[in-house]
Amino acid sequence: MKLFISLCALVLLAHAAQSADRIVGGSDVTSTTFAPWQASLQVSGSHFCGGSVISATRIMCAAHCVQSPASSTTVVVGTINYKNPGQSRQVSDWVAHPSYSSQTIDYDYSVITITALNLNSEVAAIEVASQEYAAGTQALMTGWGKTSGGIFGQIPDNLQYAYTSLISEIQCKATWGNQVTARMQCANNNSNSACNGDSGGPLAVEDNGTWKLVGNTSWGSSGCGSSYPSAWSKNSAAYSWIMGEMIPDNEQQYHLLVPTTKNIQNSPKMKVFISLCALVLLAHAAQSADRIVDGADVTSTTFVPWQVSLQKSGSHFCGGSVISATRIMCAAHCVQTIVASTTVVAGTVNWKNPGQSRQASDWVAHPSYSSQTIDYDYSVITISALNLNSAVAAIEVATQNYAAGTQALITGWGKTSGGIFGQIPDNLQFAYTNLISKAQCMASWGSQVTDRMQCAGGVGVNSGCQGDSGGPLAVNDGGTWKLVGNTSWGSSNCNIAVPSAWSKNSVVYSWIMEQM
Question: Measuring CA to CA, which residue among 483, 503, 131 is closest to residue 321?
Fold first, then answer.
């Protein structure tokens, strides 16, 4: 069967700002007057979303970008280097569209309020489009998205740009079906498909010499294939609501003329990618963590009695493994929040109906864990003692390496279908894959693979490209199950020809034992 392991949660934990979106293969913007409406939303100096200046005191954005406290966010404008703001303003307020749905990503609009900007040639408001534009119309996207794909891609200091073409709702539905609504503007021209710009950032069209803000980066294909269209929240569909959020400023609106059509036609071809990690995580932190697609239902609690679900407020967000009555083995990227708010559920095949549940009292990540490289991705969670029995049992932590080709078992409550609209199943899923060597894994991932990582899948066999973050990779060794690894990372485009990685327990066995 095919296995899929979403990286959205772990990439976001690795760097919330960097995982939001990306433009791969774009070109550098060389002048602050090229897209003077472009804004960067930042927390503690880190870019996490884009936006567009629509008046001296208002920034247009996407609803999925404004799910944290407004007061912690700074808007940076008038620059092509987000680290060197031309002007910066603290956010005083923001409002998401009242019909916004984090499940369907419909009505993905927000308006941000700031103290007045000094409008000039480098900081200018763009007009919000009040009309729809025909399929085939060329559009411009800009952002500080990643310049290379995968979880190791880097955010550039310099603003990037690329062009794409609008497509009709019918054309978009041919790929995405009824997930596409009248509030979504899709774009794709095959060679320059938007599969990740900069969440909340602008999709702009030149209309007789004036730029119009057609949409705000919303969602697209998790596989980032150029043949798949992406979607922006269509501003013309919510024009009255947007205008209602703009208190008349009476300040002069500074709108610039665009580069000529000749400039656009002569621009270099480029690929464009729009990451969904941030918006999917915001849509449902538990659901976006990981997924097993085309897995099979576990029908008995005795099949994998070491499997646990980590939950917050009744929502599953990571897996884990019972390694003693009081200790749960997990991944470091799963334990970056407040421990007291986390519940460990064990002894069930339905995460909503716990056999036993315990509050986490403490957890520790490996001291060498790196959120940038996802190396040393280990954690141990402490709970009050479980009642060990046939439905809740500890699995032995592996002390040895296993040969390439060894069959391994993956379990978890990951999504049962791909894409951002896939659903988390109530029932625990399982699937099998094969271990591969470090050399085989490096053939796909290069030096990102370390001695602390156990790869599996790819190379013509089932690849793990989304299990359940922190959850178990287990091997049956002479009738005894051994916990070889903990779900860590894999291909962002869920390519079954590409291996995925688990943190290899045998390498840090001594450290794990010290935590018990």
Answer: 483
Query: Alpha-carbon distance 260 to 123, whole Å?
Result: 20
Running DSSP on this structure, what letter comes out for residue 70?
G
Closest CA to 198 of 150, 141, 152: 141
Instruction: Tell me the residue range of the domain where 131 lies.
Output: 21-274
Residue after which a domain boundary falls, among 255, 274, 293: 274
- The DSSP element (H or E) to which 514 belongs, if any, is helix 509-514
| Active site (catalytic) residues | 333, 377, 469
According to the per-residue pLDDT averaged within each range, which of 18-27, 276-285, 322-331 is highest? 322-331
The model carries a pTM of: 0.51
Q: Domain for residue 9, yes or no?
A: no
**Three-class DSSP category at 20:** coil
Give φ, ψ of 288 to 5 degrees.
-85, -10
Token pair 């947007």 is found at 242
Q: What percent of the chain has pLDDT above 70?
A: 75
**Among 68, 62, 73, 126, which Cα is nearest to 96's?**
62
pLDDT given for residue 23 in this prediction? 53
The structure tokens listed for 113 are: 């309020």
Distances (CA, A) of 489 to 5, 160, 511: 8, 27, 21
SS3 63: helix
Neighbours of 508 (CB within 10 A): 18
Rounded CA gap, 145 and 502, in Å? Answer: 27
What is the C-alpha end-to-end distance of the chain, expressed in Å? Answer: 36
Mean pLDDT of the chain: 79
- Specify whether 105 is located in the same domain as 233: yes
**Main-chain dihedrals φ then ψ at residue 341, nearest 5 degrees:** -90, 5
> Coil, strand or helix: which one is 366?
coil
- CB of 401 closer than 8 Å to CB of 408: no
Residue 319 and residue 420 share a domain: no
For residue 496, what pLDDT band results from cuts at 50, 70 and 90?
A: low
Burial annotation 145-165 (CB, 10 A radius, 16+ → b, else e): bbbebbbbbebbebbbbbbbb
Same domain, yes or no: 255 and 326: no
| 204 in a structural domain | yes
DSSP H stretches of helix in 343-489 = 438-445
How many structural domains comprise the chain? Answer: 3
Provide the pLDDT for residue 256.
28
Tokens representing 49 are 């979303």
63-83 average pLDDT score: 87
What 8-state DSSP symbol labels residue 117?
Answer: P
